[in-house]
Specification:
Elements (H helix, E strand, L loop, with lengths): L1 E8 L3 H11 L5 E4 L15 E3 H7 L9 E5 L1 E5 L6 E5 L5 E4 L1 H14 L3 E3 L2 E9 L2 E9 L4 E12 L26 E10 L9 E6 L8 E6 L4 E9 L7 H8 L10 E11 L8 E2 L2 E3 L15 H20 L5 H30 L3 H9 L5 H8 L10 H9 L3 H21 L9 H12 L4
Parallel strand pairs: 1-2, 1-11, 2-8, 5-13, 11-18
Antiparallel strand pairs: 3-7, 4-7, 5-6, 9-10, 10-11, 12-15, 12-16, 13-14, 14-15, 17-18
Helix pairs in contact: 1-3, 1-5, 5-6, 6-10
Length: 448
């Protein structure tokens, strides 16, 4: 039997940041991951992260092999490609990463701080004793043997599969399931183009409910002629196969003629506000396992870095006070909601609006500039949005019998503000949590 102060499941972005933070405080930390050490960091994703996340956490910017491109902003295309918005600003300046090299850097920092790593180790289930998570049971994939690893606090950072979270008992108070409607099925490839891409400092995002219902497709430049190209669709009803759709409607474009495939793969992203509660007795949930992802574009690297760091700091405080129960860990919920959760809540409202908007409405609203580049920038920063609904706009939408869309847009903007304000009043203790969740459910069902 092995005992540690902290066991962390998953050596992704959140897990490594949590491990480094806790280990630097001199605590015994065990980090496990199912991959081999040299493969940690290999992950199918969009590879983009905003600079502001590094600034807020005081982290060194990606450089060398980790950095493939500095991005200035996002270029958004209407479904008919007739309207193009360039959204730039400090909130959208960032980096296109070599995900593997960046992951290896985060792992090295965690190990250099004193973290112990067990690679090729698959978490199986939590150890529950007297209502507390006391560690995990895991399988060594090299020897096919299982072992128990005990800890005062367990950090669940296993990503979308959420291996530990899904096996927590109901009385722990942590949501164990995420509905399919809050998940994007994605497929992406890294491709080498025949010719350099135009405007390589911009990330290109294409809206199309016809081809990407509830999502979008993207082309992110990673080098002079290397791109990350992919597509995500909401897992609602009989959603289309992302890979087939990418090949049929995106890779058939002239830009990809004679391009070569470097690598490809599929994954899932929880695109919603964070879990209402991310702590229980002896456990903290971080990263994708806690739905710490931007609900609009699915970016999770930045929020996961924040979640992992906050979790690490919370663990240190809880162990100093010798209080590893839900009360002792509750501050993690409060700090995350204040720093990023309220932004996610507002964006979750906007996501629902976009999923209910058809291509004609998107085309007209962008053409008439009902939503402007500044609106999109402010929305991405989680700030208040101001609409430009003129009498001309009303006449046009009345002519195409879409005035209801304008009403829906107005009510969505009001609801975004209300959601942000509500998450800014997240309860300071578990005692008020049940009432808060009931009102939250009514708010997101537009009943508040």
């Amino acid at each position: 039997m092995e005992k540690y102060d902290v066991v962390i499941v998953g050596a992704g972005t959140a897990g490594c940041l949590a491990a480094k933070t806790v280990a630097k405080a001199g605590l015994d930390v065990l980090l496990i991951d199912r991959k081999q050490k040299q493969d940690i960091g290999r992950k199918i994703c969009g590879d983009a992260v905003g600079q502001h996340h590094f600034d807020k956490l005081g982290l060194t910017y990606p450089k060398g092999d980790e950095l493939e491109r500095v991005m200035a902003g996002v270029r958004i295309y209407s479904p008919d490609l007739q309207s193009i918005f360039d959204v730039k600003g400090e909130g959208l300046k960032g980096f296109l990463l070599n995900r593997h090299a960046f992951g290896q850097r985060l792992l090295k920092e965690a190990l250099d701080a004193g973290t112990q790593l067990k690679d090729q180790t698959q978490a199986l289930e939590p150890i529950i004793e007297k209502g507390y998570v006391k560690g995990i049971t895991a399988k060594n994939q090299k020897t096919e043997t299982t072992a128990k690893f005990y800890a005062k606090i367990t950090i669940e950072a296993s990503g979308f599969p959420a291996i530990i979270r899904k096996k927590l008992p109901p009385e722990m108070g942590v949501p164990t399931e995420v509905e399919n409607q809050d998940v994007e099925a994605c497929y992406r490839e890294i491709r080498e183009l025949k010719d350099p891409i135009e405007d390589p400092e911009m990330c290109h995002i294409y809206l199309s409910q016809k081809h990407c219902p509830g999502g979008y497709y993207w082309i992110f430049p990673k080098g002079d002629s290397k791109v990350n190209v992919g597509l995500g669709v909401a897992m609602i009803n009989k959603f289309p196969n992302p890979r087939e759709t990418l090949y049929r409607h995106v890779l058939s474009k002239p830009i990809f003629k004679d391009s070569s495939l470097i690598e490809g793969g599929a994954w899932y992203v929880p695109t919603r506000r964070p879990l209402d509660n991310m702590v229980g007795n002896g456990i903290i949930i971080v990263g994708d396992a806690a739905c710490q992802v931007n609900p609009i574009h699915g970016g999770g690297i930045g929020p996961s870095m924040m979640g992992g760091t906050l979790a690490g700091r919370t663990v240190i405080e809880a162990l100093e006070k010798d209080d590893v129960g839900c009360d002792g860990l509750w501050g993690y919920n409060v700090k995350y909601m204040e720093s990023y959760g309220l932004k996610q809540a507002g964006l979750d409202v906007f996501r629902a609006f976009l999923q209910e908007t058809d291509d004609d409405e998107l085309n007209y609203s962008m053409r008439l500039r009902l939503i402007t580049e500044d609106d999109l920038l402010q929305t991405s920063l989680g700030k208040e949005v101001k609409l430009t609904i003129t009498e001309k706009s009303v006449r046009v939408f009345r002519g195409i019998r879409k005035v209801s869309f304008l009403r829906k847009l107005r009510s969505t903007v009001a609801l975004i503000k209300k959601a942000r304000e509500w998450y800014g009043r997240y309860p300071d203790s578990p005692g008020d949590f049940e009432e808060w969740t009931q009102k939250t459910a009514r708010l997101f069902n537009s009943e508040a």
